[in-house]
Amino acid sequence: MLRARLLRGPRTSGHPPRRLPGAFRRGLTFWRRSIQARVVASTVILTAVVIAAVGWLLLQQTRDGLLDQRVEAVTSEVADEVQEANGLLGSASGQDADPSVQRSDLTDLIIQRGSTRGYGVVVAGPVGEGVRIADGGTERSSHFAAASVPFSLERRFDEPGARDAWTYTTIVRTDGDGTIVAREPGIAVGAQVQLPADGSTYTIYFLFPLDEQQATMELVTRALLTAGVLLLVLVAGVSWLVTRQVVTPVRMARRVAERLAAGRLQERLRVSGDDDLARLATSFNQMASNLQRQIRQLEELSRVQRRFVSDVSHELRTPLTTVRMAGDVLHDARGDFDPGTARAAELLQMELDRFETLLVDLLEISRFDAGAAVLDTDDVNLVDVAHRVVDTTRALAEQRNVRLRVEAPDHPCFAEADVRRVERVVRNLVTNAIDHAHPDPSREDTAEVVIRVAGDDQAAAIAVRDHGVGLAPGESAMVFNRFWRADPARARTSGGTGLGLSISMEDTHLHGGWLQAWGRPGEGSQFRLTLPRRVGGSLRQSPLPLVPEDAPEPVR
């Protein structure tokens, strides 16, 4: 049961399989079939990678250059401010000895300059008392939060006498109520100033926004993006035009090759120029001319061969009729002959029957080769066909000690087909099975040939199973060749001509069906005929498995 399920394939649910959207499927088809699209896409992708890498390097160098220039400018400006502040403190040291007044004057002056020049100021100190900016007690410019000073820079000025230092930071902008309104990149520069009144050291932090540099970087970035997009479009257009010059002749060659394959052997490529593509077109045309000449020669030979077979078959009918009449007279009078002569008359009659069958088969083969075979279709019940074939071959089966058995459903199994040709196919399969059902003539038990019939909504099938000599690997494809036998030394006990299976295959192809064979040495064989329910219908699967359910598992 498990093997039968595996052979029939997995069960499918009632839900239809999910399919890709039509536009996506068309896009995939275009991508697979268009080498021009793949070349253009590859070129654009590689160009985009190169542009991105070059753009990144340019942005990095531009940013580093702008930042270095800005750092140099702000450190120079801070040094001037500190120098000026020290000069003011030195000139006022003898007049005003109040530390708070000196600090207030210094802080107000620096904060006022910062507000006019666009930078912020945070004054912290005195140094050495362990008071941090986060603890409060600092003086700063309005709209600049004290949190803009990074802790790492603040720690550098924990002791008096520290040298000026700078670092990148995030400047926090606030409104009048102290609410944060913006964060922007900037540079924080720290310097120490000593008040002459009490000798205390204070740290002044200058906060310089990088808004101009950021605007410059945004401008450069937009310019690079615009240039990159325009360059990609230009590269795509150029690559499309370049590949078109190569792909267009290839497409023309494909179309001409398709016309040649369709039988229009006079088609040729147009040759223009002397380049490699022109020489390729010339070689293609020479190849097409040679193929046309050889195909015509083969068609002529085939036509002569078909006519020869047909003429010989027809010409042999007249002498065969005469010999048949004489053979019938001798066969009817064999009772008056001596045993040797009587046996000769019987052999003559048998060989005349076989010769006449061979002529009929040759005429049928010649009609197939000439394309003159046509179908006379009707609704055919394959169950009735199987029973009629069994009735006509029962005498031969009893002579060979073979039992015939039909396994068919109770209901009819219809297919639109030519009943004469279908019966001929099934009869050839059954007689072939009878001929090979008993590999050892010394056996006295009865062999069995099973004819199974089944159908579904799309197809109907008949399978003929025997348990005889079977087929060796590779012989299932050769068994339908003309005059082929698995064992050339083996006699045809059923009087076959060697053309039955070949004619059956031609009849099956005429119906648009399948005729397949399975076999293993010593385990018998099974032949399966599958026909579509309607002439011209497509086959996807057969109602019957090709490998019979009673076949043993192969030894690995």
Assign the CATH architecture of the largest domain.
Answer: 2-Layer Sandwich
Total tally of structural domains: 3
Q: Please count the helical segments.
A: 12
Main sheet: strands, sense, barrel: 5 strands, antiparallel
Structural class comes to: alpha+beta
What does the model show?
The chain folds into 3 domains: 156 residues, 2-Layer Sandwich (Beta-Lactamase); 92 residues, Helix Hairpins, CATH 1.10.287; 159 residues, 2-Layer Sandwich (Heat Shock Protein 90). The protein is elongated. The chain has 12 helices and 12 strands. The strands form 3 sheets. Strands 2-1-5-4-3 form a 5-stranded antiparallel sheet. It has a 5-stranded mixed sheet with strand order 7-9-10-12-11. By secondary structure, it is α+β, with helices and mostly antiparallel strands. Helix content is 53%, strand content 16%. Helix 10 packs antiparallel against helix 12.
What's the layout of helices and strands?
Blueprint: H1 2-8, H2 22-33, H3 35-92, H4 99-117, E1 120-124, E2 139-140, H5 151-155, E3 165-174, E4 180-194, E5 201-209, H6 211-261, H7 276-332, H8 339-370, E6 378-381, H9 382-399, E7 402-407, E8 414-417, H10 419-436, E9 447-455, E10 459-466, H11 475-478, H12 500-511, E11 514-520, E12 524-532
Parallel strand pairs: 7-9
Antiparallel strand pairs: 1-2, 1-5, 3-4, 4-5, 6-8, 9-10, 10-12, 11-12
Helix pairs in contact: 3-6, 6-7, 7-8, 9-10, 10-12
